[in-house]
Each structure stands twice: as C-alpha cells, then as structure tokens.
Write a structure and sequence with these properties.
single chain, PEBP_euk, 1 helix, PEBP-like_sf, mainly beta, 129 residues, PEBP, Flowering locus T
C-alpha cells in the first residue's frame, strides 16, 4: 500500500501561501534501535495552497518505506512557508532532524501532521521496546 507516494492535497484560503511537506520514519532501522532516526522518505516544498504535492518542488524523491523488523511509524508533517524558498536536500536520508530543518528555514510549528503504521508484508509482529 505504500509503494507509490501518498496523494496529498492541501486546502487553504490564502492562495498566496506555500507549504513544505516532510515524511520521516522515526523508527529506522528498527523500533527497538532507531539509530537512523529520523529517516527521510520524502521532502516537497513550494506547494501552492489549494493544490497537491505534484504542484510543488520535490527536493527529495519519495522512497517507499521497507521496514525489516517491527512496526514503524511514518510521519507526514506540513509546514507553512513564509514565502517561496529554495530548500536544499540533506546529504543523507538517515538522521534527518525535522525540528532543526524547520528552524533553519524559519517554518515555525507544523500546520498539520499525520502518521500511519507500517510493517513488512507478512509482518514480523508487534512493536519491540
């Protein structure tokens, strides 16, 4: 169900607004030992209000989650931008820091967030702590 990038539509009254979407896995590589947290799966910026991610600038292309062990949380966070802005891709997908990213680009608090659980097909069981 996660092979293709999610369809994300952004509502908004202010047609001058732009948004940045971040998708991370805070449980990589395993929930019991998440030393790659946060793993960046997708980064899109300059998404115009009242459109979808396909109208934005895909900074880091979508990478399908492929958990090997346990149940992973995949988190999508949406930030409102102060203006159109060039956002740079990180050197690595692992150890991405959403809070620091938002601070660097002066995004402030998220305007929306959602998460879903994901596990390997033919799952490996429950969350290990």
């Amino acid at each position: 169900m996660v092979i293709n990038q999610p369809s994300v539509e952004i509502e908004g009254d202010d047609l001058q607004s732009f948004y940045t979407l971040v998708m991370v896995d805070p449980d990589a590589p395993t929930p019991s030992n998440p030393y790659h947290k946060e793993y960046l799966h997708w980064l899109v910026n300059d998404i115009p209000a009242s459109t979808g991610v396909t109208f934005g600038n895909e900074v880091v292309s979508y990478e399908c989650p492929r958990p090997t062990l346990g149940i992973h949380r995949l988190v999508l966070v949406l930030f409102r931008q102060l203006r159109r802005e060039i956002v740079y891709a990180p050197e690595n997908r692992q150890n991405f820091d959403t809070r620091n990213f938002a601070k660097v680009y002066n995004f402030g608090l998220p305007v929306a967030a959602v998460y879903f659980n994901c596990q390997r097909e033919n799952g490996t069981g429950g969350r290990r702590i």
